């Protein structure tokens, strides 16, 4: 070690800020971010973890790596299609393109021909009506919970929401439907028992205080055994006769039936059965952006759209654009993953396994996102040592495997086939790192 302080050789801040790499980075990053990165690299050198001469290159490399968002893309190898912790639905290319278009000035609330203001998101509403013909009209809000809040507030604030005790669900992360409805100023009128609710229960509860009857899809669990529930069609005869609005919270957002998910409700079927209004999420099985959909009778949609709360939960232009493109566009990644051909999944898994020296085992994927509980999606997984999981999660690209019973499993259902080569490289790198680690080689 030199007797002069090597820290004096660390390049000065102004010199580093003048690097071409810093100038280039300013196209993406604010000055304060560039400065912070420069200071962090200098700090590493001061702490002796970086040679002073290496500082300019390290600054350039760190700036180049730093993206404007800290969110990291993840290859979802869990087999869970709508993965809440990974942002639910990955968008279709058409929706991504629409996001780009909508990112500038757009005519989201403007009639360009007339030069006057128009209603917001008309094209998205029309696209939803076209995709779900029994819907008289449609409205888009921020998420499924907001759709439910808007519906119950506009139809039942100060009055009663009649709902079966078997449908008072918690959706996840402490979001409980009864608490949500109570927060709207509507009173819950619970009917029936946890496992059984009959038409007479509803009939006895409906009266002058009823704001609406709510039917909730218990999307994340199943009650089996001695159970009974009243279907929408039966309920609709009752509410129709009483002039009471029937609202169905479907959760998943299928606009029409999907043969792969026979028990999953869809908007068209629910409306045909007699629901006056359905609510659903945009980013579950519909495969679009986070959004809440309201579909149904146009007079009710108009009432909801006029309610002051509608302004507080309205969707932004990016959501409207991506949702429209999802509905009018082709196959979404969610639909593709749900319908993935098991034989093809097996071939891809086998290829990966052969390349890295692993094995393949049968593995069921899941719908996820609180949808279709217990519906297995038959497929395959590459079987790897459990110790590989943290290396895969923190590698580049980041890969999220499923860790189950001491094994690290890679189910390719939700990995685009175009990413197979990158995934294989990530697995090979992680295996090499693991082997090096086990050999006692720290580096
Ligand atoms: C997911 C879900 C919701 C909430 O939708 P978000 O889009 O998450 O706000 C409401 N109801 C049901 C039945 C659901 O499955």
Overview of this protein structure:
The chain is an alpha/beta fold and 443 residues long. It is 40% helix and 19% strand. It has a 7-stranded mixed beta sheet with strand order 5-13-12-11-10-6-9, sandwiched between helices. A hairpin with a 4-residue loop joins strand 3 (110-111) and strand 4 (116-117). Helix 5 (93-102) runs antiparallel to helix 14 (317-328) and helix 6 runs parallel beside helix 14. Pyridoxal-5'-phosphate is lined by residues 143-145, 148, 171, 216-217, 219, 249, 251, 281, 292, 370.
Main traits of this protein?
alpha/beta, binds pyridoxal-5'-phosphate, 19% strand, 443 residues, 18 helices, 5-stranded mixed sheet, 18 strands, selenium, single chain
C-alpha-based Rg, rounded: 27 Å
**Major sheet strand order:** 5-13-12-11-10-6-9
Choose one word for the global shape. Answer: globular
What low-confidence regions span 5 or more consecutive residues with pLDDT below 50? none
Strand-pairing-aware structural class: alpha/beta
The overall pLDDT, averaged over residues, is 94
The amount of beta strand, in percent, is 15-25%
What percent of the residues sit in helical stretches (DSSP H or I)? 25-40%
**Number of E-state strands:** 18
Largest sheet: 7 strands, mixed
Write the layout of secondary structure elements.
Layout: H1 13-17, H2 20-25, H3 31-46, H4 55-65, E1 74-76, E2 80-82, H5 93-102, E3 110-111, E4 116-117, H6 122-131, E5 137-141, H7 144-156, E6 160-164, E7 170-172, E8 175-176, H8 177-182, E9 187-191, H9 199-205, E10 210-216, H10 232-242, E11 245-251, H11 267-273, E12 277-281, E13 292-296, H12 298-306, H13 308-312, H14 317-328, H15 333-338, H16 342-356, E14 359-368, E15 377-385, H17 388-394, E16 398-400, E17 402-404, E18 407-411, H18 420-438
Parallel strand pairs: 1-16, 2-14, 6-9, 6-10, 10-11, 11-12
Antiparallel strand pairs: 3-4, 5-13, 7-8, 12-13, 14-15, 15-18, 17-18
């Amino acid at each position: 070690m030199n007797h002069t302080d090597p820290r004096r050789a660390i390049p000065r801040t102004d010199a580093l800020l003048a690097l071409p790499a810093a100038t280039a980075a300013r196209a993406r990053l604010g000055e304060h971010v560039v400065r912070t990165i420069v200071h962090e690299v200098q700090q590493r050198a001061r702490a002796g973890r970086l040679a002073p001469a290496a500082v300019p290159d390290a600054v350039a490399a760190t700036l180049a790596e730093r993206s404007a968002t800290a969110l990291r893309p993840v290859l979802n190898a869990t087999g869970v299609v709508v993965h809440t912790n990974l942002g639910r639905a990955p968008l279709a290319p058409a929706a991504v393109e629409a996001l780009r278009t909508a990112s500038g000035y757009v005519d989201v609330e403007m009639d360009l021909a007339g030069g006057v203001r128009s209603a917001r998101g008309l094209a998205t509403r029309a696209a939803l009506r076209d995709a779900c013909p029994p819907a008289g009209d449609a409205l888009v809000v921020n998420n499924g919970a907001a759709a439910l809040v808007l519906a119950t507030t506009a139809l039942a604030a100060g009055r009663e929401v009649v709902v079966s005790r078997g449908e008072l669900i918690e959706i996840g992360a402490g979001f409980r439907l009864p608490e949500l409805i109570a927060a709207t100023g509507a009173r819950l009128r619970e009917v029936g028992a946890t496992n059984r609710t009959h038409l007479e229960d509803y009939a006895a509860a409906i009266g002058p205080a009823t704001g609406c009857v709510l039917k909730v899809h218990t999307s994340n669990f199943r009650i089996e055994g001695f159970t009974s529930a009243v279907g929408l069609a039966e309920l609709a005869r009752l509410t129709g006769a009483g002039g009471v609005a029937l609202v169905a919270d479907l959760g998943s957002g299928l606009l029409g039936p999907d043969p792969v998910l026979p028990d999953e409700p869809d908007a068209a079927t629910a409306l045909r059965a007699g629901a006056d209004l359905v609510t659903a999420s945009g980013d579950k099985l519909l495969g679009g952006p986070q959004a809440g959909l309201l579909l149904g009778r146009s007079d009710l949609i108009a009432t909801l759209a006029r309610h002051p709360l509608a302004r507080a939960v309205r969707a932004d232009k990016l959501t409207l654009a991506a949702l429209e493109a999802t509905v009018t566009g082709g196959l979404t990644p969610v639909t593709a993953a749900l319908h993935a051909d098991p034989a093809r999944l097996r071939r891809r898994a086998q290829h990966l396994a052969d390349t890295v020296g692993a094995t393949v085992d049968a593995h069921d994927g899941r719908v996820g996102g609180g949808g279709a509980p217990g519906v297995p999606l038959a497929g395959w997984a590459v079987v790897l040592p459990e110790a590989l999981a943290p290396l895969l999660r923190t590698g580049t690209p980041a890969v999220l495997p499923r860790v189950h019973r001491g094994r690290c499993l890679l189910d390719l259902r939700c990995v685009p086939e175009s990413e197979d080569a990158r995934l294989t490289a990530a697995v090979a790198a992680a295996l090499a790192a693991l082997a090096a680690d086990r050999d006692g080689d720290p580096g």
